[in-house]
Amino acid sequence: MKRILLAASIIGLSACSSYQVPDSPLFAANSNWVIMPLENHSSTPMASEKVEKILNAQLYAKGIRATLYPELNSNNLAVIIDDSAKRKQAQAWLASQPADYIITGSVEEWHYKSGLDGEPAVGITLEVKSAKSKATLWRATGSRGGWGRESVSGTGHIVIDELLDGLNIEQQ
């Protein structure tokens, strides 16, 4: 009976998260890293901006001092909601930066599930591209459903940390 309960617990806990995180090539931490706008495929407005801020902080904790694209300064709601203006401004800014690596990706999920418990659900994909060739050097994706009293941003921290664990970083 104990074995059945243990197996059921393991299956139940593993169903809460899913990660595809391959090992990356070796990246130098002191290279010029740039975080570009992530695509927001979630139903939560500005979820990608939240993920970008968390990503920047967690990269810093791993020894990477990435530069985040400049914020779009606009009071026009249509411009704020439409990501194309932000992307165009970020691409123009990137052309003037001495970048080695570009971090981009998407946010698939960033919300609380409906129901009594309202558990958080987060899904994120990250990519590292060469700034010179634009070739994708590493890509990872992960999703996680948190527990009833956990926050969406706390769950996001866990997902981003799991994804970044796949980066092979050479500290110098």
Looking at how many chains there are and whether they match, the oligomeric state comes to single chain
Gross CATH architecture: 3-Layer(aba) Sandwich
- The structural domain count equals 1
Share of helix among residues? 25-40%
Which secondary-structure class do the elements indicate? alpha/beta
Number of helices: 5
Given as residue ranges, the uncertain stretches (5+ residues, pLDDT < 50) are: 5-15
Predict the CATH topology: Rossmann fold
What Rg do the Cα atoms give? 18 Å
SSE succession: HEEEEHEHHEEEHE
Percent of residues in β-strands: 25-35%
Q: Name the CATH homologous superfamily.
A: ABC-type transport auxiliary lipoprotein component
In CATH's first tier, which class applies?
Alpha Beta
Q: What does the main sheet amount to?
A: 7 strands, mixed
Principal-axis shape: globular
The number of distinct β-strands equals 9
Give the termini separation: 52 Å
Describe this structure in words.
This protein is of the alpha/beta class and 172 residues long. The chain is 34% helix and 29% strand. It is globular and about 50 Å long. The strands form 2 sheets. Strands 1, 3, 4, 5, 6, 7 and 8 form a 7-stranded mixed β-sheet that branches. A two-stranded parallel sheet has the order 2-9. The termini are far apart. Residues 5-15 have low confidence and may be disordered. The protein has one domain (17-69, 98-170): ABC-type transport auxiliary lipoprotein component (Rossmann fold), CATH 3.40.50. This is Penicillin-binding protein activator LpoB.
